[in-house]
Design a protein that fits this description.
By secondary structure, this protein is α+β, with helices and mostly antiparallel strands. Helices cover 25% and strands 28% of the residues. It is built from 7 helices and 17 strands.
Length: 312
């Protein structure tokens, strides 16, 4: 994601210039990964908004709730409540005026005492907004991406809290992604600590097989994705049998379709795994139906029947 040279950043209650949104080198989060964050998308929406910008933020309330939940899990006592955190996101989007954008709220331990104990370090919050398009490139919507099963496992349930969108968890994601790209793939798929399918480096995983839609359960060391929830809703609307369960690795190789979901990834088909083609080696029919249904809602092409959009 390309960073802007000119933008406004919300930092501890004030909008500041991009160049002024800085922290001290002794910031606790830099040393001990004591931070959590969210990723939201704003889409250029044909319905427009009160400010005339025509930007629709997807699942704003769900993302803000997950941010606050991550703070609770990670022992980050936030000074701002739900309504204030929500308004911080809206204010930053308004200030920048990007119609299609990626939004990154960040809560972190600031500069206080140097040491593992975070008690004397303040809890700060920032919101960043950047312009953003298709995460894997527009061609991936139909062609799909190439993935591999990573040698890196997801965290065991008694190591790091995977239900929190915590920065500490993303060192694991970085290793999964760099290993995959170093071997010629677009992204990697991690197994959980018991060898069952978990998720990608930054996206949830879905498998279409035997006329059913499978996705790893919350007990498979996954982040409970907001876009994942949207897909579950759309799939059930289509009358699909949806199973949130443990999935063995080998199901990938006999699947009819595989796709990944996330705020950035949206709904992206997977054309091959470990250099083995999935289905016809491109986007499958069910993936296409779900993808088109999701994008039509978030882009304002059809009615927002689920109340997913907040117009700015």
């Amino acid at each position: 994601m390309k960073l802007p040279t000119q933008a406004k950043v919300w930092h501890n209650g004030q909008l500041v210039e991009w160049r002024d949104a800085q922290v001290h080198v002794a910031t606790h989060a830099l040393h001990y990964a004591t931070s959590v964050f969210e990723g939201l998308r704003g889409y250029a929406n044909g319905h427009g908004g009160a400010a005339g910008q025509g930007t629709a933020i997807v699942q704003l309330d769900a993302h803000v709730k997950r941010l606050l939940d991550s703070c609770r899990i990670s022992e980050l006592p936030l000074r701002w409540d739900f309504a204030q955190a929500r308004e911080a996101v809206l204010a930053t989007v308004r200030a920048n005026g990007f119609k299609s954008c990626y939004i990154r709220p960040l809560v972190f331990r600031g500069c206080g005492a140097l040491g593992v104990d975070p008690s004397n370090s303040p809890v700060d919050m920032s919101v960043i907004v950047i312009e953003h398009g298709a995460h894997f490139g527009p061609e991936a919507y139909a062609r799909g991406i190439a993935m591999c099963v990573s040698s890196w496992r997801r965290m065991a349930p008694d190591t790091l809290p995977t239900m929190a969108k915590a920065a500490a968890n993303y060192l694991n994601s970085m290793h999964i992604l760099l290993e995959a790209r170093g071997n010629g793939f677009d992204d990697g798929i991690a197994l959980d600590h018991e060898g069952y399918l978990s998720e990608g480096s930054g996206a949830n995983l879905f498998v279409v097989a035997r006329g059913k839609l499978f996705t790893p359960s919350l007990g498979s060391s996954i982040l409970e994705g907001v876009t994942r929830g949207c897909v579950l809703t759309l799939a059930r609307e289509l009358g699909l049998e949806v199973l949130e369960t443990r999935i063995p690795r080998e199901m990938l190789y006999v699947a009819d379709e595989v796709f990944v979901t996330g705020t950035a990834a949206e709904i992206t088909p997977v054309r091959s795994i470990d250099r083995k083609p999935i289905g016809a080696g491109a986007r499958g029919p069910l993936t296409e139906r779900l993808q088109q249904a999701y994008l039509a809602i978030v882009r304002g092409e059809v009615a927002d029947r689920h109340g997913w959009l907040t117009l700015v």
